Amino acid sequence: MSTDEIKRSGDGTEKIDSLNGENKNFIELEIDKDLAEGRYDHVQTRFPPEPNGYLHIGHAKSILLNYGLAKEYGGKFNLRFDDTNPTKEKSEFVESIKEDVKWLGADYEDRLFFASNYFDQMYEIALKLIRKGKAYVSDLTAEEMREYRGTLTEPGKNDPMRDRSVEENLQLFQEMKDGKYADGEKTLRAKIDMTSSNINMRDPIIYRVAHLTHQNTGDKWCIYPMYDFAHPIEDAIEGITHSICTLEFEDHRPLYDWVVREAEFPQPPRQIEFAKLYLKNVVTGKRYIKRLVEDGIVDGWDDPRLVSISGLRRRGYTPSSIKKFVEMAGVSKSQAVNDYAALEYCIREDLKPSCSRMLAVLNPLKLVIDNYPEGQSEELEAPNNLENEALGSRKLTFSRELWIEREDFMAEPVPKYKRLYPGNEVRLMYAYFVKCVSYETDDAGNVTVVHCTYDPQTKSGSGFEGRKVKGTIHWVNAQDAVQLPVRLYENIIDEEKGVYNEDGSLNLNPNSLTTVQAWCEPALKEAKAYDRFQFVRNGFFCADSKDSKDGAPVFNRIVSLKSSFKLPKK
């Protein structure tokens, strides 16, 4: 893939300027053909979310694909809300979507649109269809309409009101608009073909009565257009050339083409479908996430255990890591399920060269250096990132009492254990060799303190070339360490059981969130929202953007350091 320009702003977010690759996908080839044949002389794309929930990782693919195509061909990219269903739409969702799209770097400039702003034009197009004999008002109930619709193997039957006169249909439709009828009492249907092999073409509903307050238009309307009618009109009004959507809309394409053709748009847009981005063992369905939020299982749509874009952002993922993952998934017409480990691989690769490597002890055990002078401390030099010298170094204080990870000591070591145990010597990272001489336990036999001696000649960076040790462990100075909350995450789904139970409920992992009080080097207390670090040997962490305790950050583990994931062979 070609290297895209990524601009990093002061708050740590990244701006993605393009989504170009060396090998063209099938959509690019179709666009090339359209331009060569003169079907269009430019490219304009859009991302058209429904504001009925927060966006997730699958939406990121659509955003980056549509924006990337516009950038590649020197075209324009629109953000448009398909807000035609006021039953589920909220201003909260509108604002969250705008933030997500901007965060991913998809710049829609001043082209922010709402389908509801076109309601007057849609109404006029509906009138045009009635006058052309291409639409009629139906009295059928929802149940009756299902009966008349037919099945995949049997044709439908004509609506009894299908041959109403143009004049009567115009009057009834006006009365629908004026609020004369109750919800569901009447609908406006397109007159196409009840015997079509494509059920979507069997006189679909294009308007329904719904006495609801709309988040954008208020109470102006009591009739609302259906998505399949509204969407192609929105595209055509905005001058979209290529309507890029996912495969479930492939069977809707004939209706899309029918609407823009019968509405007589001079240069109708073209719909092209691609495969969705699926992740294994994750929850993306809005109704399921809504239930998790309402039941208090997660603390909002942006909970870091979710793969909503806001959840990934809060956890510490970067736009460039998500873009890399989308590129790895590719663009095709073949449905595939992607491993979450691939997404984790992308964020590791993004953060390795850019994060300072800090010291934090998540499961602390006291270590006392018996021969280090009491009351004495010293400063040690620690590089911030050995792979990136530009990040410089920092000073660490060192004294007689330290915190180490509990897993770094065993009273009775297992074979090949290279860390601390009685009689063994290890290096304290950036400091000295220490040798375990004894340990203390509580009444239950739990180790509470490890006692060591140190060799002053072995100071890191001093050029000591004597004996070698096989283990190195990290530590923090008990004298000035700060205690901070750290959240450790697992998949919210119990992966062994799969996502759903037979009754449709979710198989939740009771251990998806563990909060520990970690001892950290003092600089970490000054971390601001979205600051990212590698905690040595424990993973990559991000200061939470939502929570803080007494002004101090709460850290979310973005990802552990190691994974079994391997890039596929080319």
Keywords:
570 residues; alpha/beta; 7-stranded mixed beta sheet; 12 helices; 29 strands
Please describe the topology of this protein.
Layout: E1 6-8, E2 14-16, H1 26-36, E3 44-47, H2 57-72, E4 76-81, H3 91-103, E5 112-114, H4 119-131, E6 135-138, H5 142-149, H6 166-177, E7 187-190, E8 205-209, E9 223-225, H7 227-238, E10 242-246, H8 253-262, E11 270-274, E12 278-279, H9 286-294, H10 309-315, H11 319-329, E13 337-338, H12 340-351, E14 356-358, E15 360-361, E16 364-369, E17 377-383, E18 393-399, E19 401-405, E20 425-428, E21 433-441, E22 447-455, E23 472-473, E24 476-477, E25 482-489, E26 513-520, E27 532-535, E28 539-549, E29 552-559
Parallel strand pairs: 3-4, 4-5, 10-11, 12-13, 14-27, 16-22, 20-23, 25-29
Antiparallel strand pairs: 1-2, 6-7, 7-8, 8-9, 15-26, 16-19, 17-18, 19-24, 20-21, 21-22, 25-26, 27-28, 28-29
Helix pairs in contact: 7-8, 11-12
Number of E strands: 29
Structural class: alpha/beta
Instruction: Label the overall shape.
Output: elongated
Q: Please bin the fraction of helical residues.
A: 10-25%
Major sheet attributes: 7 strands, mixed
If strands are numbered along the chain, what order do they take across the biggest sheet?
A: 14-27-28-29-25-26-15
Tell me what you see in this structure.
This protein is 24% helix and 25% strand. It has 12 helices and 29 strands. Strand 28 (539-549) and strand 29 (552-559) form a beta hairpin. Mean pLDDT is 93; it is low at 1-21.
